[in-house]
Automatic annotation (TrEMBL):
Principal location class: membrane
UniProt xrefs under CDD domains: TM_PBP1_transp_AraH_like (cd06579)
Coiled coil: none
A single MF term (Gene Ontology): transmembrane transporter activity
UniProt keyword list: Cell inner membrane, Cell membrane, Membrane, Sugar transport, Transmembrane, Transmembrane helix, Transport
Keyword Nucleotide-binding: no
InterPro entries: ABC_transp_permease (IPR001851)
Name this polypeptide is given: Xylose transport system permease protein XylH
Job of this protein: Part of the binding-protein-dependent transport system for D-xylose. Probably responsible for the translocation of the substrate across the membrane.
Amino acid sequence: MSNLETKPADGVAAGSQVNPVENRFTNKFAHILSDLGKNGIFLALILVVVLFSVLTNGILLRPQNISNLIVQNGYILVLAIGMVMVIIAGHIDLSVGSVAAFVGAVSGVFAVDWGLPWWLSIILSLLVGALVGVWQGFWIAFVGIPAFIVTLAGMLIFRGLALVVLGSASIGSFPGEYRALGNGFLSNIFGEFEIDPFTLGVAAIAILALVVQQFRTRAGRSSYGQAVEPLAWFVAKLVLIAAAIGFFAYELASYKGIPATLIVLAVLVLVYGIVMNRSVFGRHVYAIGGNLHAAELSGIKTRNVTFWLFVNMGFLAALAGLIFTARLNLAGPKAGDGFELEAISAAFIGGAAVQGGVGTIGGAIIGGLIIGVLNNGMSIMGIGIEWQQAVKGLVLLFAVAFDVYNKRRSGGR
């Protein structure tokens, strides 16, 4: 029998041994760093909130300002949900601001000029937005024109149509039920109280549902042998999120209760979160963004998926336009200016990858909230719009640069 020599591994000196305790500590520390990277966007939101709370002497976290923050940024968050789905699939949509303005103008014609019932005006306006998505989705999915070009053309087309519909004027005022979409509140269900118990009850249910869902997800991953974050960090993260929800719910309960815009957002996040994480369509969207050719070879009808993505984007752009119009009680020719840039920024700041295949609905919402807090905080401080734009541009640049750095560090291209 021949003798076998054991050679030291590369980078390890002969005769030396790897300390198992040190190795376990190193692996655990690396795992924590990885978890921090995954949850970095949430930590960034907390940091931004704390920073501007200090810089504004607490004005940022006053009940009325928190409520205004949600109402003023609701339409951007709605757009961010659709935009992140489009970006995950490897596309972009530059037309959402113009589509929102066009649908807002059309809704003004329905509800004010024609005197249609408010609910019918909203339904017809959402249908118009979906038809806009059908138009753009056809050119992108079935004709094969890049989404950048189609939606750039759409940005010009629907901005022009909005001006045509409005006649370069404005339309108002809207019925009270219509305005409630952007300015309404759900409160006083159980009577008049200084602190609305209904809002606190909804928050308690939301926290309980979140905790149950997170523990079930963790248990499912463990049962399949997948890596899970350390229990201490997992519990600490849940406590932090629950505390944040509870705090903001208390602030809302101290003011007027739950904004109608927040209810719309909660429903959208729940529905689209299920679609992207638990449905075949959602898995197909990620597959297309990750590798289009492989998705086609695997039998995915990529054209159909792309088409419905843009139909959905048109629908959500219409909803955002309705919320914005309802908040202002006015359909104007300047509505929707810059909405597309805010939505795209929210998606990328929230962790979506430029190449596609990566991103989450929750990340896009948090990215939109970061932009909203930046806008609100700098406005309270009296910082001019020119500096606000510069700061948001830098935040977007650093967010994308961080994504690129992470990919290079992990060995990706």
